[in-house]
Write a structure and sequence with these properties.
The protein is an alpha+beta fold. The chain has twelve helices and 17 strands. The strands form five sheets. It has an eight-stranded antiparallel sheet with strand order 3-2-1-16-15-14-13-12, sandwiched between helices. A hairpin with a 4-residue loop joins strand 5 and strand 6 (about 145). The N and C termini lie far apart (about 65 Å).
């Protein structure tokens, strides 16, 4: 009888373990002074963040800083929902928009490590509709449509040199007619694979491989991941990145039980805040917990927490290792953090790798920075930067769109770097 009881108990424990996998190791708290960070100097960052909220320029923020893999600063202020007087908490969730892109780029490198694709291969090897594409060339009164001089490659897509914008280029009328403009996809009934299939037939903005054009490249890579892996994009990312790293709060569409942790979107124009409309648009609250929930936008679709995103960035900083697992090889990470577009003469001392902007020349960049720093941001005014030299990860989340007349990102950068002593 006793043996049967314990056998059943063990079975229940095993079932629970399989059904509810561990979130992984908690982020460790570090002593700033022992890690070469001045707590006195960090207090200036706290004061600055609080001033942006107290002056009514921002609704609320969450900031987390890791040094040598340990948390040395975590701060939440303001309101998750001003009208409800619901205070912001460090565990709250945010629409991270284009910060999705780096995660998708990592997914592509994972598939290359699996032997299932090569980044220098033409995209048409995986998405046949891209075998022959066209480009819109302005002619004064309108534009001519010409054949692309070369095929778009996976590397072109990773580096935003595919020539594909956000549908507002010379042939904007064609993209508008196809109802493919802007980065927002959450309200679409159409799966991303079908949207990408239709993109291929539209005239692109520039010739592939000749200019840096920011747009749908990473959404297209999301479709590549689905085709090559044979999995929906959300399932692939969960299996290969989120669960292994313990990123249990990162989703394309929020589970109902997490909705009360999602920060409200506000507009900030010249110092005045207003609640964004409830509409499903680029400047609204968006359909991230209701609606079709069919389109997984690899370019701008994810929601996450500051701690989750810090886990991802720390994995990159640690050469592909995170949560006790080797997610990516060190060589893949090195390629991600190498400049691939220097020949295109990007300005202000920056380059671009496979998923990240890179600081190549801090002097030319102008702001406080370190050589080799990698960064990007999102349309809801979130941002991040990672100093390889100082082994420091900085994640800053807020929900403001549009965000005009704000210099909080500049303050964040200056007041973080001034606190790093070694």
């Amino acid at each position: 009888m006793q043996q049967t009881y314990f056998s059943r108990l063990l079975a229940i424990v095993i079932l629970f373990w399989v059904a509810f996998p561990s979130a992984g190791q908690e982020l460790q708290i570090g002593n700033p002074e022992q890690l070469g960070v001045s707590t006195e100097r960090l207090s200036k960052l706290t004061q600055s963040l609080d001033e942006f909220v107290n002056s009514g320029r921002l609704p609320g923020t969450v900031t987390i800083i890791l040094k040598n893999g340990k948390v040395i600063f975590e701060h939440a202020n303001g309101m998750r929902d001003i009208e409800a007087q619901d205070a912001m908490e460090t565990t709250d969730l945010f629409r991270i928009a284009s910060q999705t892109k780096a995660i998708i780029s990592a997914g592509i490198l994972l598939l290359q490590e699996d032997g299932k694709l090569i980044v220098t291969a033409p995209a048409s090897r995986y998405l046949p509709e891209f075998a022959k594409t066209t480009v819109a060339v302005p002619n004064g009164d309108g534009y001519d449509v010409v054949d692309a001089r070369r095929q778009i490659t996976i590397r072109h897509l990773l580096t935003h040199t595919s020539g594909i914008g956000y549908g507002y280029g010379p042939a904007a009328d064609k993209w508008k007619e196809a109802e493919i403009q802007g980065w927002y996809f959450a309200d679409r009934e159409e799966p991303i694979r079908e949207t990408v299939r239709r993109m291929a037939a539209l005239p692109m903005d520039r010739q592939p491989g000749e200019e840096f054009v920011y747009g749908y490249s990473i959404d297209i890579l999301g479709a590549v991941i689905e085709e090559v892996s044979g999995q929906p994009l959300d399932v692939f990312l969960k299996d290969r990145i989120f669960e292994p790293l313990g990123m249990m709060d990162t989703h394309f569409y929020l589970p109902a039980e997490k909705l009360d942790r999602l920060a409200v979107v506000y507009s900030s124009i010249d110092g005045s805040l207003s609640r964004a409309a409830d509409s499903s648009t680029m400047n609204g609250q968006g359909e991230y917990s209701s609606g079709p929930m069919k389109s997984f936008s690899g370019g701008a679709g994810l929601l996450s927490s500051a701690a989750d995103y810090a886990r991802f960035l720390q994995m990159i900083l640690d050469g592909g290792s995170g949560n006790g697992k080797q997610i990516l090889s060190p060589v893949s990470v090195s390629s991600m953090l190498s400049d691939h577009v220097g020949h295109l003469n990007r300005t202000n001392g920056t380059g671009f790798g496979l998923g990240f902007q890179l600081i190549l020349d801090p002097g030319a960049y102008g702001q406080l920075s370190t050589k080799g720093e990698f960064s990007w941001g999102g349309a809801y005014h979130s941002t991040y930067f990672v100093s390889q030299e100082y082994q420091t990860v900085v994640v800053y989340f807020t929900q403001v769109n549009p965000a005009r007349g704000l210099d909080d990102h500049d303050q964040l950068r200056a007041l973080t770097y001034q606190a790093l002593l070694h």
